[in-house]
Structure formats: C-alpha cells, structure tokens
Amino acid sequence: MWLIITLIIVGLILIVAELVLLPGLSVAGICALLALAGASYLAFGQFGTTVGVITLIVIIVLAVAVTVVSLRANTWKRLSLKSTIDSASIPTPQEHNIRIGDCGVALTRLAPMGKVVINGTTIEAKTVDAFIDQKKEIEVIGFENFNVVVKKKG
Q1: Taking the CA of residue 35 as centre, how many other CA atoms within 13 Å lie in the half-sphere pointing to its CB?
Q2: Contacts with 106 (C-beta within 8 Å, 6 or more apart), sequence order
Q3: Spelled out in words, what is the top-level CATH class assigned to the domain 93-152?
Q4: In the 8-state DSSP scheme, what is residue 21?
Q5: At the N or C end, where does the chain have fewer CB atoms within 10 A?
Q6: Cα angle vertex 5, ends 45, 61, to 5°?
Q7: Smallest Cα–Cα separation from 138: which of 107, 97, 111?
C-alpha cells in the first residue's frame, strides 16, 4: 500500500515539475505517467478491481487538481520575482554633474572610445567624428548610455 501511495505522490510531484519547471514533453512528464500507471497497476493487482478503480479515480482527480492549481495565474504570482532593480553599477555622467556644453581634456586617444576628464571627473567618452588625440580639448555634445559623446573643441 505504501508503494502505491509513494508512486502517486512522486507522479504528482513530477506533473508539477513538468508544468512549472520543464515545459514540453520531457523525462519528468514520462516518469510521472509511468509512476501513476504503476500505482494503478499495483492497486489492481494487489487489492482487486474495486480498490483499483477507486485508486484510478483518485489519481485522475488529483492529477487534474494539481494541473489546475499549477496553471492558475495566482500560483505564478506567488512564485514570481516582485522586486525591481532601479540602480546601476556605473554612475551616469549626469550624476557627476556633467552637462552638454561642458569642456574637458582627452586623457587617452579617442578612437572612437577613450577616457576624458570633465569637471575633474574621469569618464569614458565617445567621439562621433574624427579621432581625437590625447591631451586635446573636448566639448560634451550628448550622452549615450553611460558614456559621454564629445567633439573637438573649437
């Protein structure tokens, strides 16, 4: 009797795993069907037709109930991540008080990316036109993600 109950529980757990974790027909789904069929076969073989039919009805009802509960929207809401990430690992140029029109100096050659110093802050910059050599004056003309877009001053 314990083997039949264990097979039913394992089968139901594998159905939930198939529906929630492993969508599609996979090993978990096939093993769930085999476990539930094995439990039904053992119930018919060991206890006769009456207990076998009752076991089969219980398996069908529990499988339908587990499937419905697993696929309900509220079940997914309880399992889903609710926190949002509203920060960044790199501060934006605006957080360093860098504005369009500010001037600075190229620390490295901008070909087209490199480092610049603007208002005493070293930040990565990108040029949109020609390359800018080291120690040349630059002017901020925009922002792209976490980079400053610059051009040669003058």
Answers
A1: 20
A2: 114, 115, 116, 125, 132, 133, 134, 135, 136, 137, 138, 150
A3: mainly beta
A4: I
A5: C
A6: 90
A7: 107
Give pLDDT tens digits for 78-134: 766 777 777 666 767 767 778 888 889 999 998 889 999 988 888 889 998 778 889
Q: Are 153 and 102 in contact (CB under 8 A)?
A: no
Residue 135 sits at φ, ψ, to 5 deg, of 65, 15
The domain spans of the chain are 2-79, 93-152
Tokens of 34: 């085999």
Strands 121-127 and 147-152, sheet pairing: parallel
Q: Are strands 137-144 and 147-152 parallel, antiparallel or unpaired?
A: antiparallel
